[in-house]
Design brief:
Layout: E1 12-17, E2 22-27, E3 40-41, E4 47-55, H1 58-67, H2 77-88, E5 98-106, E6 111-116, E7 125-128, E8 134-137, H3 140-143, H4 155-164, E9 177-179, E10 184-189, E11 192-197, H5 211-225
Antiparallel strand pairs: 1-2, 3-4, 4-5, 5-6, 6-10, 7-8, 7-9, 10-11
Helix pairs in contact: 1-2
């Protein structure tokens, strides 16, 4: 599964294996070139993270978490996810500013947690096999390496692609393989899978605006995001 997405991270590969979970990643080294190897675990090894993307406010998060007693062993943004999850659990995700797809394995609770950034900049696919195994990855080709993942075309998704030019989430082109929508996280524990939204655009705030006010708001957002 890692080999077929080597192009996403040509610099490094890391894996971890327990009796209940296997995590793997390919790394494009940008932050903490020497110390940012993944997967990364916390002080007691019970929380382990693999992560694709960049957390822009990781230094601020690190300072806050150190003040709360957490000890960092690297200067990578990935480790800020580990300790934030230790401190806040799934409620840590709204604290992250950046682009990300992440997976957290909680050994104590035997729980897998996945999350995707607000805009969906980083992709994340998943499926639940007939044996009850959750398989996930950054690209469909990675999931298809797993022997229990089927390759049946999703006709609803194909229709959407031919009509719209893309496949809308949470569908993928394959039956029973889904994209985690932007601004959502997923919890898998005890064979049960739950997908929840943690952020959405506040449309109600713009309902009373005039057309010109909406255009001005959009121009402001474009300028803000270009800085």
């Amino acid at each position: 599964m890692c080999r077929v997405i080597e192009h996403r991270g040509p610099d490094d590969q890391g894996t971890t294996l327990t009796d209940a979970a296997a995590l793997g990643m390919r790394r494009l080294a940008i932050i903490d070139l020497a110390g940012g190897h993944q997967p990364i675990s916390g002080e007691d090894g019970s929380i382990t993270v693999v992560f694709n993307g960049e957390i822009y406010n990781y230094r601020e998060l690190q300072r806050d978490l150190e003040a709360r007693g957490h000890c960092f062993s690297t200067h990578s943004d990935t480790e800020s996810i580990v300790h934030a999850y230790e401190e806040y659990g799934p409620a840590c995700v709204p604290l992250f500013r950046g682009m990300f797809a992440l997976a957290v394995w909680d050994e104590r609770e035997r729980k897998l947690f996945l999350a995707r950034d607000r805009a969906g900049k980083k992709p994340l696919y998943y499926t639940l096999t007939e044996r009850g195994t959750l398989v996930f990855g950054s690209e469909l080709k990675s999931l298809l390496e797993h022997p229990d993942v089927e390759r049946e075309i999703n006709m609803e998704a194909l229709d959407a692609y031919l009509t719209l030019g893309y496949v809308p989430d949470p569908l993928s082109i394959f039956q029973d393989i889904y994209k985690l929508p932007p601004g959502h996280h997923l919890t898998f524990s005890g064979g049960a899978l739950k997908v929840e939204s943690y952020w959405d655009f506040p449309y109600e705030q713009t309902e009373s605006l005039s057309e010109e006010e909406r255009r001005q708001l959009q121009r402001t957002k474009i300028c803000a995001h270009s800085r």
